[in-house]
Amino acid sequence: IAAFGVGNPLAARQLAWLPPFLALGAALTAFVWSGLGKLRAPLLVYAATICVMAWRAASRSRAAAVPSTSFLLALSGACLFVASDALLAIRRFRRPFPGAHSLELTAYWLAQLLIALSVRS
After folding, report:
1. Which stretch of DSSP H or E encloses residue 26?
2. Using one digit for the tens of pLDDT, what is the confidence trace for 29-38?
């Protein structure tokens, strides 16, 4: 979250990017809620953290100090990171499905690569 703030100070106009990520986090949380048991509070904290991370990556779109390539790589990586965690949550707390673990890991490692490349650009 802090890294996506470099060259991208908080500004009111960035709040427009927040609702879609919060809605996605809320929808996923609602989908897996019944299977969480004692992990409900930790999942809420983690889901909020991941949503804020993706929001900060998206909010870089208008930052003058952030090249467009860096923005696109960071946003793509952040969205893949969210997807990876969503797949993990669905597999662990709702219902497993064939290939879920492979999809999670592929999305996770591609997310890490894209976020790392966003720093270089």
Report:
1. helix 18-32
2. 999 999 999 9
How many C-beta atoms surround the C-beta of residue 97 within 10 A?
11
CB atoms closer than 10 angstroms to residue 75: 22
Count other Cβ atoms within 10 Å, centred on residue 72.
Answer: 16
Among the listed residues 107, 20, 29, 30, the one whose alpha carbon sits nearest the alpha carbon of residue 55: 20
Contact 109, 51 (CB under 8 A): no
CA atoms within 13 A on the CB side of 33: 8
- C-alpha 95/C-alpha 8 separation (Å) is 39
The whole-angstrom distance between residue 77's C-alpha and the CA centroid of its chain comes to 8
For residue 50, CA distances in Å to 1, 2, 99, 111 come to 9, 12, 23, 13
What sign for the dihedral angle of Cα 70, 73, 76, 77?
negative
Structure tokens at 45: 């904290």
Mean of pLDDT values over 49-71: 87
Enter the pTM of the model: 0.88
